[in-house]
User: Fold this.
Amino acid sequence: MADRVLSDVFWDLRDDAYDRPERWQDVSPVDVFQRLAELVDEAEQGQVPHSEWGSAVAARMIAWRAGLR
Assistant:
């Protein structure tokens, strides 16, 4: 998945919100951007390999909304 581009991450999140609106209905934009910023910070600090961080961030955002954290 190293060929994925950053926009793919956002499309994955959008698709999840479209396919499973119940996961996202009680989430404010502030919540989304706060969580996204936290995950990007972790990725930038080397906690996620750079080549995988986009996919990892999308997966962790979806898991967060699915209650899997």
